[in-house]
Backbone:
DNA sequence: GTCGGGGATGGGAACGTTACCAACTCCGAC
DNA sequence: GTCGGAGTTGGTAACGTTCCCATCCCCGAC
């Protein structure tokens, strides 16, 4: 009923627990014959080492577990990132605890506290809009931290992001090049760093064309597909509705595309690519970022820190790609 | 540099470690004044309880951690399920370790072994095609197991699935009702239980119309979007190509829809709904299952087992819904 | 024959925490 | 004045493992 321990295995194999420890952990100094006897006892009892007890005692304790904290695991962008992180971790024999924050600072704190209480070796973090001073003490205690997708204000850690501002600028410039002058901006919370960056890129492009920002065309704080659909409806009710849309993440893009009718003549560029974005009845161009590369890069950075890299925090910026799709294009 | 322990807190607060333990864990029998002194010492030192050591010692040890093992976390279906599981776990103050198997029995074993070595309270498992006898010993040791999406052959555990066969039958019946008689089947590995069920449903519908299975129209073992696209190309090269397609999961559906040209006259019904499936340039009907309900149900079942429910294993079957979309329809 | 060395094995302590029990204080009741 | 009980506190052992050191054995070298 209870799980067998090394003592039980030792008794069954007629050796000391110490020898079992060595045999089970593959350390040298066990004769082949003894090792075989231990292995048989292990098999017979169905013994499995208790890694929690192990990590408690080991000289340099490491749980071989990292925590991944994202905004929303159900979002395909973060799902791809998570899978990529998991693959990288699996390659190192490491496990991944996941947590979604919904971008709520309180939930972020709870999740991170639960992770550090379990002695994770490191945290891969998509920071919420809240402060992150509470990370300082775990970091002094040895927990490594790497930020992905967004930096954490006032926290000196490695950060992996993409060129949000330049990507947004290119997207809006493309729309301007198509002759549009009334380009709406549909964004998530302005408190989120990526959103501020993308909004800045939007302004960059407008400004380069000598266009001022039209507050009526700018909508922030869209947290869901239905928020985005509602914002779209409001924009179309304007006296002079926009002729093009810039949507700043996949959720908003999906909300907008879902609400557009087939006959609608409006050009859309969205941040984030997604499956079949090239097969929609209304054409959709996208600023594509690579969540797999994002996750893999961040994970590698984290593991190099866990392995003892003490150099100054790095900031890695990956590039986005504008994919133009339209009636005349072959898609991509 | 090193993380403080209860001893350090005890020294700082001028009490015994035992009292710190009580105070930190909110147990009764600590005077308000002492509790306050302990709390201040905790804050000052940045102390956090080591839950691994705690669980080692506790009377009925529970790590408040469950393991979630899915085929592929990047698949939107499993991503939604994972998020739903995580929410359920969060509500209980429980953490979630995730692992993807790629449907490889070896990786499944590795992941599960790593999970049980860390003493997870339970496993939420999308079983691979491999055997699962290796789960018996952890289960005797107290690890609860619930299967989701598919049953595990020869394992007496709770299982949450959907009515795959009936859903597939309804999908193919719909195509037959549209006048199609050459309906291709594009499926994943036949070894996967859901795929066998969906294939059986396909045959049910054909049989009810007095149609035999045409081996030329049936393709198994499609593991990726490109596999699906290639299978589609091969089918269209047939002397008498199919006029309708039944695709048996989201990956295959996406592969097929991505490869279809805009002018193609072919009806498609796919298993699994996904965002904007109603906005594709080629209409797509789907058999929709609810991954959120699947995950939540399975998680609740698992937690009730962890809480001590020893009744006979249950088998829960959730219902699918056929969503018909076409040029004449409003979509859904 | 003694000695030395290397390989195998075991004993005891410790990791950070909690279970269990004992002890102490304080107070009212007999 | 003694007793008893409730409330608070501390000491000791133990959870399952590994680190450190000692021991034992065998064998070859002097």
Residues:
């Amino acid at each position: 009923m209870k799980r067998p321990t090394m003592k039980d295995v030792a008794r069954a194999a007629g050796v000391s627990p110490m020898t079992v420890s060595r045999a089970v952990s593959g350390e040298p100094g066990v004769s082949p014959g003894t090792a075989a006897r231990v292995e048989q006892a292990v098999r017979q009892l169905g013994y499995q080492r208790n890694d929690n007890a192990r990590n408690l005692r080991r000289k340099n304790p490491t749980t071989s577990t990292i925590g991944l904290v994202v905004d929303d695991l159900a979002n395909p962008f973060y799902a791809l990132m998570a899978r990529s992180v998991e693959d990288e971790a699996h390659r190192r024999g490491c496990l991944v605890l996941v947590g979604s924050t919904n971008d709520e600072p309180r939930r972020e704190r709870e999740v991170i506290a639960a992770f550090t209480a379990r002695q994770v070796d490191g945290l891969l973090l998509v920071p919420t809009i809240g402060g992150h001073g509470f990370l300082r003490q775990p970091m002094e205690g040895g927990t490594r931290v790497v930020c992905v997708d967004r930096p954490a204000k006032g926290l000196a850690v490695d950060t992996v992001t993409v060129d949000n501002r330049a990507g947004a600028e290119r997207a809006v410039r493309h729309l301007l090049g198509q002759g549009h002058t009334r380009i709406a901006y549909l964004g998530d919370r302005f408190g989120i760093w990526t959103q501020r960056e993308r909004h800045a890129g939007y302004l960059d492009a407008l400004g380069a064309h000598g266009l001022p920002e039209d507050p009526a065309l700018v909508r922030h704080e869209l947290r869901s597909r239905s928020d985005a659909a509602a914002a779209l409806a409001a924009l179309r009710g304007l006296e002079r509705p926009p002729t093009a849309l810039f949507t700043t993440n996949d959720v908003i893009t999906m909300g907008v595309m879902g609400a557009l009718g087939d006959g609608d003549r409006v050009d859309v560029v969205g941040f984030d690519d997604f499956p079949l974005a090239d097969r929609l009845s209304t054409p959709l161009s996208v600023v594509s970022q690579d969540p797999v590369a994002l996750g893999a890069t961040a994970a590698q950075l984290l593991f190099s820190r866990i392995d003892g890299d003490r150099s100054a925090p790095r900031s890695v910026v990956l590039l986005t790609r504008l994919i133009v799709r339209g009636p005349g294009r072959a898609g991509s």
